[in-house]
Amino acid sequence: MTEQIINSKQSLDAYKAYLDIQFSKKHYLRMTCKTGDLRTLSQNAALHVFCTQVSEALNDAGFDFRVFVKPGYPVPFNENLVKEYLWRPIQKAITGKNSTTQPKVNEYILIYDALNLKLAEHGIHVPWPCKENMK
């Protein structure tokens, strides 16, 4: 069975029944239980849009990777560089979590706010992608 989200009494009861069956068959279970609301699928999609938009804004403003992160050859920003070298270090500092799948819904707001504040120091503002901003 793949990862299960248990968010109701009904889904809890169904998963208990599944576990009972598996245990009676194998007499051994290995499980991991995570609690709390992790980022949503729409937050994940928005993160990728945001990183792309930030990379475009930085490139349009004349910045390149070496200006923000590493001296050397000029490298234009892209979604991956923004995610790995701008978003992830801020995420790690705020949440202590490495993977972008790990922060909770409310932590995404804190990470965005911190990165947006830093970008504003360079005259760049990219709003968080949402239905209202995408129109």
Descriptive account of the structure:
With 135 residues, the chain is mostly helical. The protein has two domains: 1-33; 41-120, no CATH class. 56% of the residues lie in helices and 0% in strands. Helix 2 (41-60) crosses helix 4 and helix 4 crosses helix 5 (105-120). It is elongated.
Count of β-strands: 0
Order of helices and strands: HHHHH
Coarse shape: elongated
What is the straight-line distance between the termini? Answer: 39 Å
- Radius of gyration, rounded? 20 Å
The biggest sheet, with number of strands, parallel, antiparallel or mixed sense and barrel status, is:
none
Question: What keywords describe this structure?
Answer:
single chain, 135 residues, 2 domains, elongated
Short synopsis of the structure:
Helix content is 56%, strand content 0%. It has 2 domains: 1-33; 41-120, no CATH class.
Tell me the layout of helices and strands.
Layout: H1 9-26, H2 41-60, H3 65-68, H4 79-95, H5 105-120
Helix pairs in contact: 2-4, 4-5
